[in-house]
Design a protein that fits this description.
2 domains, 7 helices, 10 strands
Length: 264
């Protein structure tokens, strides 16, 4: 990830700062502070082995815009750690604490949870440097993943499209790539609004039912430790195939950049 040839877009808004880090041997990271005109930059810390600087920079710009639109006194930033998202708990803690110490002097950036990190990850960061958002309830945070805040927000966006007559939610077919903290809650919230989830995927594969999946049963199946591909009330299909299914709503809640000129 941290090649000298790494590149990112630059314009009048930012980035204000791009910082490359090596928290300890074998682990590399990058922090992109896009814009601090409204205050400290806030944005999540993404952990996955193939994270790129350009991806982090794009996410940082998205945070600049989202924070401004929401009227928050914060700029936008983002960070990425090149490490497996499925580290053993002790190794994950070691990485997060090292990352926290590495960003201690970057006081214009406040990290939060993102793909590959969690409220517990932010607890480690807060313990080291006293600066993090998305904390566990015991530290005064709000359990966003448990409440399904991001998935709910997606459903509210669908409400706005429905009110604008851009989309009819009643019977709208939904395809969800990634049935985790975002995808599962989005499925539930969209289903409550009359939409029909016809296919979902996770790292183990995908399941499909053109007549609609039973989301409550699928969530229970997933919580029992199974991949959605083995859901008995659906048809198992390759994960990539669901992107080609006809639908009114596509939720890419897994890896970034999944919609391309080849499959879009």
């Amino acid at each position: 990830m941290m090649e000298t040839s790494a590149s990112w877009a630059v314009d009048e808004l930012g980035p204000a700062k791009v910082v490359f880090l090596r928290p300890f041997p074998g682990v590399e990271a990058v922090v992109v502070i896009d814009n601090v005109a409204l205050g400290q930059a806030i944005g999540g810390t993404r952990m996955r082995p193939d994270i790129t600087v350009s991806e982090v920079a794009r996410l940082a710009r998205a945070m600049t815009i989202k924070n401004a639109v929401a009227g928050l006194p914060h700029g936008g930033g983002k960070s990425g750690i090149a490490a497996p998202a499925d580290l053993a708990p002790a190794d994950h803690e070691r990485v997060m604490r090292a990352f926290a110490r590495a960003i201690a002097q970057l006081t214009d950036y406040v990290p939060g949870p993102d793909m590959g990190t969690s409220e517990t990850s932010m607890a480690y960061v807060h313990d080291e440097i006293g600066r993090a958002v998305g904390l566990p309830t015991v530290l005064g945070g709000v359990p966003l993943d448990e409440l399904g805040a991001t998935g709910y927000g997606l459903a509210v966006c669908a409400d706005v499209l429905s009110e604008a007559k851009v989309l009819d939610l009643a019977g709208a077919r939904v395809v969800i790539q990634g049935f985790g903290a975002v995808g599962s809650h989005a499925a539930r919230a969209l289903g409550e609004r009359g939409a029909m989830v016809i296919a979902v995927s996770d790292t183990g594969g995908a399941t499909w039912d053109p007549d609609g999946l039973d989301i409550a049963a699928l969530v229970a199946h997933k919580r029992a430790g199974h991949s959605v591909a083995g859901f008995p009330a659906g048809r198992s299909v390759p994960a990539a195939d669901i992107l080609a299914l006809d639908c009114e709503i596509l939720v890419p809640a897994a890896q970034p950049d999944v919609v391309t000129s080849d499959n879009g």
